[in-house]
């Protein structure tokens, strides 16, 4: 089985050496590594090229693609995927790292089960220390996807999972240029809707928590707009593909979260409505949106929203 590991690179000169060393040291051999240089101004690519010389047996399987100008994380992931040739896909962020046997363990599980998506535990990395280990979810796909669509209940991370390529190609799922913040959410729920998922108990990814320059640490207006676009993309997809409306209430709960987050960050309702054409239909989520339109304080709406989400997750998730 040929694995494509896709790595966007931008502004990570402090971390790229550790990342690249961990990738090239994988015990599994049949891997292609595709790095996308998104025109950072630091020495990330020079450091990557230096590490490559230390692993001559891997050089033939490494490609570094370069954007002509900075296009963002969504575009970098899309560029990497378009250039990949593997049967399976794994995303790695260039400030993170993999344990040496990560790919081998994921591949073994995929071969054993025939699953379309395999993930495992991940360790939260601060400095050079793993400060916490987060186990994979063992819930059924329906419960797991409901929680993911509700937002802020389970991780929607794109990294730390192995995906069969045809999950993307057969269902028209891809990363979108311009959706950089919450780009994980724009992709993973759409894949999960069709995936036969399983997991391994082992830690297969080291996720860096202390990179303050990463997208997850920046909540600008541009990032909120990206988040809203991701929510609308997922809503459009689920409306079209979830014909039995199995996930409709969870989707509605997630959209309330999008509205309250945007408004709390000073984005006007008019602007949110421009980006998000999806309209919630479930009773309590619709009531929450109505309260926000009546300019009820977000803190007060949160009480209703969070209570309903908690009840829904306990009941359905």
Strand content: 15-25%
Q: Which segments are poorly predicted (pLDDT under 50) over 5 or more consecutive residues? A: none
Order of helices and strands: EHEHEHEHEEHEHHEHHHHH
Ends distance: 34 Å
* Helix proportion: 40-55%
**Overall 3D form:** globular
Mean pLDDT: 95
- The structural class is alpha/beta
What is the tally of beta strands?
Answer: 8
Number of helical segments with 4 or more residues: 12
Computed over alpha carbons, the radius of gyration is 20 Å
Reported for the largest beta sheet, the result is: 8 strands, mixed
What does this structure look like?
By secondary structure, this protein is an alpha/beta fold. Helices cover 45% and strands 17% of the residues. The protein contains twelve helices and eight strands. Strand 2, helix 2 (44-53) and strand 3 form a beta-alpha-beta unit. The two termini are 34 Å apart. The relative contact order is 0.12. The mean pLDDT is 95.
Comma- or semicolon-separated keywords:
eight-stranded mixed sheet; 12 helices; globular; alpha/beta; 317 residues; 45% helix
Topology readout:
Blueprint: E1 3-9, H1 16-24, E2 31-37, H2 44-53, E3 62-66, H3 73-83, E4 88-91, H4 102-113, E5 117-126, E6 129-134, H5 141-150, E7 161-164, H6 165-169, H7 183-194, E8 197-208, H8 221-241, H9 248-264, H10 269-275, H11 283-293, H12 298-316
Parallel strand pairs: 1-2, 1-4, 2-3, 5-8
Antiparallel strand pairs: 4-7, 5-6, 5-7
Helix pairs in contact: 1-2, 5-7, 5-9, 7-8, 8-9, 9-11, 9-12, 11-12
